[in-house]
Amino acid sequence: MTLSYAITPFTAWLVAGGLKFLVNSIRAGKPAFGLIGYGGFPSNHSAIVSSMCALIALLEGVDHPAFGVALTVAFIVMLDASSLRQQVGKQAASINRLTEQMAERNIHRERMGHTPLEIAGGVLVGIAVGVFVACFS
């Protein structure tokens, strides 16, 4: 086992997080430290799991059992990001509206899930990182 299997998901997380901060900062017109976390473009979760799928496919082959496991986990993570966590974000928005009279600011984080475009962006980042690491392994 090479160190690339440990480096790849961390690198994908770092690249996707940096891109997300940049995109959110451009949209906000100022450094968007308050928007770091769940939700937004690109999806960190999708980048992490797809980076491992890409790395395993490139180093071990798509016929290797580890690729099947990585692909299965990737699908589960992306389905969760696009459905369950978006519903949690909608629930937080409803709670914030209900408690608006009682508090000066919303305390529940509303941006939780990912749109299909955000997931696709994370997948592209993850594949790019996996290919990059595989080239140097």
Mind explaining what this structure looks like?
This is Acid phosphatase/vanadium-dependent haloperoxidase related protein. Keywords: Membrane, Oxidoreductase, Peroxidase, Transmembrane, Transmembrane helix. GO terms for molecular function: peroxidase activity. By secondary structure, this protein is mainly alpha-helical. The protein has one domain (about 5-135). Helices cover about 70% and strands about 0% of the residues. The chain has five helices and no strands. The protein has helices spanning about 5-30, 45-60, 65-80, 85-100, 115-135. Helix 1 (about 5-30) runs antiparallel to helix 2, helix 2 packs antiparallel against helix 3 (about 65-80) and helix 2 (about 45-60) runs parallel beside helix 5.
Summarize this entry quickly.
The protein is mainly alpha-helical and 137 residues long.
Please give the number of β-strands. Answer: 0
Separation of termini? 11 Å
Could you tell me the strand content as a percent range? under 5%
Helix content: 55-70%
Q: SSE order, as H and E?
A: HHHHH
Give the overall pLDDT as a whole number: 84
Radius of gyration over all CA atoms, rounded? 17 Å
Largest beta-sheet details: none
**Count of spatially separate domains:** 1
Number of helical elements: 5
Shape: globular
Brief descriptors of the model:
peroxidase activity; 5 helices; 137 residues; mainly alpha; 69% helix; globular; oxidoreductase; single chain; transmembrane helix
Chain-wise SSE layout:
Layout: H1 4-28, H2 44-59, H3 65-82, H4 84-98, H5 116-135
Helix pairs in contact: 1-2, 1-5, 2-3, 2-5
